[in-house]
Amino acid sequence: MEYNLPLPLEGLKETGPAAFLTKTYNIVEDSCTNNIVSWSRDNNSFIVWEPETFALIFLPRCFKHNNFSSFVRQLNTYGFKKIDTERWEFANEYFLKGERHLLKNIKRRKTSSQTQTQSLEGGRFRLEGEIHELRRDRLALEVELVRLRRKQESVKTYLHLMEEKLKVTEVKQEMMINFLLKKIKKPSFLQSLRKRKLQGIKNREQRQEVISSHGVEDHETFAKAEPEECGDDIGDQFGGVFSYGDELHIASMEDQGQEGDEMEMDSEGIWKGFVLSEEMCDLGKHFI
Q1: What are the residue boundaries of the HSF-type DNA-binding domain, all occurrences included (predicted)?
Q2: Taking the model in full, what pTM does it have?
């Protein structure tokens, strides 16, 4: 026995158009209101000729408000576009004269709250990433700042030490220069220098005689054992006599024996704190 099951009704599960669309379509479709609102010449859009009258009569009757701007925003929500800047003309590809069945294809756009929620979620994700990068950059900057501060302290300490060392050096140099200028003006000091210079020449002549008498091999051995005494002349005004610091020191000591207590500065550390070198002799050339 066969049973003929009823076929599902066509369009049973389909949802109808929104009430806003149906009411708007009925208002536009009514030919009695063409002086207020009507279809356009091409029947693919509608025109509100008198917005104030439309808001005063039809909006309260159909939508329970009289705000024309709210009606326009509602049209935008369903995808209607204002196609003429000089008049209130709106169009939607499924809002056509004589094609009421197409209204079901007009869908309401997502509400601003949904769009805003999605936008906020995406924005929050981006902000979290930016905050993470900013924290990482801040940490790196803090580490670099600590390093620079330590380096700055080291540089300050180094500069302070250099300043102290420079001050000590300047004091020693000034004391030594004053001492030399004072001693060089004394005949006894120059006589001591000349005497040591002549003694050095005599010693070299004696060594030369010894070398000549013992031959070349002994000359090399003798030269290695006792190197030739060094000397450096300052100028002709002193008879070509001005030796290195050791001779100057000895000459000053000899002069001290002649002058009495004038060399008390030596006990204060001039010679102990400042060793005369070849550079000091060169410095003396500029002050003599």
Answers
A1: 59-83
A2: 0.37
Q: pLDDT digits over 52-94, tens only?
A: 999 998 998 888 888 999 999 999 999 999 998 889 999 999 9
275 DSSP assignment: -
215: left (phi over 0), alpha (psi -120 to 50) or beta: left
Task: Tell me the longest C-alpha to C-alpha distance in the chain.
Answer: 158
* Residue with tokens 């008198």, as numbered in its chain: 50
For residue 69, what are the CA distances in angstroms to 184, 185, 191? Answer: 110, 111, 119
Q: CA-to-CA distance for 288 and 286, rounded, in angstroms?
A: 6
**CATH 1.10.10.10 at 19-109, yes or no:** yes
Domain boundaries, the chain: 19-109, 172-285
Q: Give the full edge-to-edge strand order of the sheet including 37-39.
A: 37-39, 46-48, 88-91, 81-84
H or E, element range at 127: helix 112-184
C-alpha torsion 256→257→260→266, nearest 10: 30
Residue type present at position 198? L
Average model confidence (pLDDT) for the chain?
75
H helices of 64-111, in order, are 68-77
pLDDT at position 6: 53
Stated as kind and residue range, the H or E segment containing 84 is strand 81-84
Q: Which residue has the higher pLDDT, 199 or 155?
A: 155
- Check whether 170 has a pLDDT greater than 70: yes
Say if strands 88-91 and 46-48 run parallel, antiparallel, or are unpaired: antiparallel
